[in-house]
Structure formats: C-alpha cells, structure tokens
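To illustrate the input format used throughout this study, we show a single complete record. The first block contains the structure-token representation of the backbone; no residue identities are included at this stage. The design step must infer an amino acid for every position from geometry alone.
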C-alpha cells in the first residue's frame, strides 16, 4: 500500500490518494475509488475496505479525496476525479496500472461523480484542465447515486453543491446530472440501489438505467431487497461482489459467471418517476 500519495497539488488544497497494488507482476487494471458524503463531507478512509477488496481481486485501487462543498462548488469535484484518472495514466508504470483498462467505483455522491466520469468528455466542459492524457474510463460501478439533480429543485444541499438555484441557473443542474449526458459512447455500467432507500430515491438509478438502455450502453441493474441508503453501503457485500464480477468482465475480459438473481418484485420504472 502507498499511503498519502499526492495526486493533485492545487494552490488552495493538496489532494491525496491511498494506492493498493496487488501482489505479483503487473500491469493490472486500475479502479478509481470515490467516497460519498453528499459532496460536502466524507473521506477516503471510509472506502478502505472496498479498495482493499478490489486489490485482492487483482486491481490497483486508487482511493482518493476530493475538494468538498460548500467551500469548493461544482465542478471542482469532477475536476478532481478527472485529474485522478489522468494521474493514474501518467503514473501507470510506477504503480503497475494498465492505462487502457481503468474503471471507477463510487457510492452515493461518489456514484454521482463516477457516473459523470463515465458520461462526460471534452465536449461537456468538465475536464478542469486541457491535457493530452485522457480522463475517460472503461467501466463504471455506481451505487445509489443521485443521477438527476433536477429532481432536487428545493434542496439546500444541492444549492450548496452547485452554488445555484434551479430557477437562477437551470443549465448547471443539467450539466451536473449524469443522466443528461448519456450517449452511445459511454462505457459499460453496473448500477445498484437499495429498495428502501429514502435518501436517494430509487428512481435515480431506474431512470439512469433506462437512459443507458435507450442509448445502447451495456448496463446491469442490481436492486437490493429491504435495505436503505446507509445499510446498503455498510452491509451489502453482494453488491461489491457483483461490482468485481462486472469489472472482471469488462476490464479483465473474463467470462461473466452465472449469479443466482436475488428475488424481488418486478418494478415498473414509470412508478418511480416522482
């Protein structure tokens, strides 16, 4: 493990990463790990267990901090994540990363940023800096992410994050919503969500999955019975197991193993649009 590695040195803040490299000879696929916390709190140590598990399964895990709101408002957070992907490629030999096989994993606000990494490129104006090194990722795993910020027109948290109201600047709400940037060029995605989530409504993931389907993007959906937002993050090992299997398929080109589907009632996406 390489602890407290500087991946971005800004005048106002130095950003660190913890890097977990599998044993053996690389290069290995890389996974950027992004913590949640509503964009205004949280830290990378909350993701240590997940990052270590990825490393045990043959991935170089890069577990990052990023600038937090309200001191730093959007798009600072996605700028930092894109910087981290470029940093992984620029330091690929040092940390045994295959620069052509980089995925991203995030939960909650981290899932939102992971999805933005998957759906946006140079044309979306969110790169933060121009570079010859690509910030594109090849696979995305996102749990319980707020994929459509336009669903929160009155949220004080979103206003702090965007430093705007939807009446005053509807374009920033659209730009910050991964669902608004879905296209056929997006990488494969694995999405999961707790059926009892009362913090990020399940409609975010269902609507996002439907948008990916319409665009022809390979996407998997895993809905977890009887768990809410925090319990899914703390207790759902099956979601991480399925994330690893998804990354194996798209970053290692391994056959996707047959997984017994968890039983749940059929959902009508139209029932969850509110």
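Output of the design step:
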């Amino acid at each position: 493990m390489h602890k407290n590695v500087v991946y971005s040195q800004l005048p106002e803040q130095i950003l660190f990463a913890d890097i977990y490299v599998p044993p053996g000879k690389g290069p290995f696929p890389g996974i950027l790990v992004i913590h949640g916390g509503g964009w205004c709190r949280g830290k990378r140590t909350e993701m240590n267990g997940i990052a270590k598990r990825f490393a045990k399964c043959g991935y170089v895990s890069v577990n990052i901090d990023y600038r937090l709101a309200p001191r730093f408002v959007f798009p600072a957070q996605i700028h930092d994540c894109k910087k981290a992907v470029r940093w992984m490629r620029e330091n690929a030999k040092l940390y045994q990363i295959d620069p052509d096989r980089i995925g991203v994993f995030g939960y909650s606000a981290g899932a939102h940023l992971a999805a933005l990494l998957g759906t946006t490129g140079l044309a979306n104006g969110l790169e933060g800096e121009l570079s010859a090194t690509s910030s594109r990722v090849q696979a995305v795993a996102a749990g319980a992410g707020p994929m459509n910020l336009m669903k929160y027109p009155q949220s004080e948290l979103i206003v702090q994050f965007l430093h705007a109201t939807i009446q005053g600047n509807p374009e920033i709400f659209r730009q910050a919503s991964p669902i608004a940037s879905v296209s056929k060029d997006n990488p494969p995605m694995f999405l999961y969500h707790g059926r009892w989530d009362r913090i990020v409504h399940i409609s975010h993931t269902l609507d996002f999955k439907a948008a990916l389907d319409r665009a022809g993007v390979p996407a998997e959906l895993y809905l977890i019975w009887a768990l809410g937002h925090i319990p899914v993050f703390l207790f759902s090992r099956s979601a991480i197991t399925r994330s690893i299997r998804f990354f194996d398929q798209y970053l290692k080109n391994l056959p996707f193993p047959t997984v017994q589907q968890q039983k749940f009632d059929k959902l009508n996406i139209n029932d969850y649009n509110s």
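Structural context for interpreting the output: The radius of gyration is 17 Å. The chain has a mean pLDDT of 92.
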